[in-house]
Amino acid sequence: MSTLSAGTGTLSHSDSTKTIKARHHYLPIEPPSYLSTAVRGLKGSLHVLTPPSNARTKGPFKPRSSRGTTSYQLRKFAEETLGSGSLRKAVKLPEGEDVNEWLAVNVVDFYNQINLLYGSITEFCSPQSCPEMKATDEFEYLWQDSENYKRPTKMSAPEYIEHLMAWVQGNIDNEQMFPSRTGVPFPKTFPALIRQMFKRLYRVYAHIYCHHYHVILKLGLEPHLNTSFKHYVLFIDEHTLASGKDFWGPLGDLVESMLKSD
């Protein structure tokens, strides 16, 4: 079994993962258009984390200086291109727009999508059924952060995912990392943070596919999971966010087929 952790082994990752206790709330999150009626019917009863409070998730977001499009308008652009049926088109940076703003808008949307999808199977993912955060027996993900878990720490899948989603939410709500005020630039560390966020969020997809896909099938959610993940894969490919041959781990073959089919 390969353990993905910080500074150990050929499959090691410098980020591991992070731990913050977060309260869960029953709160509806509006999914993108391709998460159709089946998912929309679930959203009122899902066990999901509170969405980030950053302005990107709330309505019109004022443009920074020298930029003519708000975050709200970028999100509308993404929704419109998704509605056109072309995922490859939907992931491209709109002409004349800031790449960091585009990455920020999309990581918020992917956070919400993953939160919603995982919320549909939480009753089947418990410390008893998933005592380790794995994607097959070959890949285990350990949690590490700069505050509470400074060493890679083994934990159950639901605990790991709860900490992961809280870590993402905390970063999105951090004005120093995700500035929402006009004229405030993104920090120089933003590209590295975005890569880390996409890398860690991928692990939720991997766990669902490898350990809960039978539940997804029973719920009739496989088209929505597959489309959401393909959107995620194409976005990462378009913006070169994957690093290292082991980035996709157990889903490498699926990712390869998705990239070839678009």
Please, could you describe this protein's structure?
This protein is mostly helical. It has a single domain (2-261), classed as Butyryl-CoA Dehydrogenase, subunit A, domain 3 (Up-down Bundle). The protein has nine helices and five strands; from the N terminus they run ββαβαααββααααα. It has helices spanning 37-40, 71-83, 87-90, 99-119, 157-172, 190-211, 213-219, 222-238, 252-261, and strands spanning 2-4, 24-25, 48-49, 134-135, 139-141. The strands form two sheets. The chain has a three-stranded mixed beta sheet with strand order 1-5-4. Strand 4 and strand 5 (139-141) form a beta hairpin. Helix 4 (99-119) runs antiparallel to helix 5 (157-172), helix 4 runs parallel beside helix 6 and helix 5 packs antiparallel against helix 6. Mean pLDDT is 75; it is low at 2-71 and 80-84.
Write a concise synopsis of the structure shown:
The protein has 262 residues and is mostly helical.
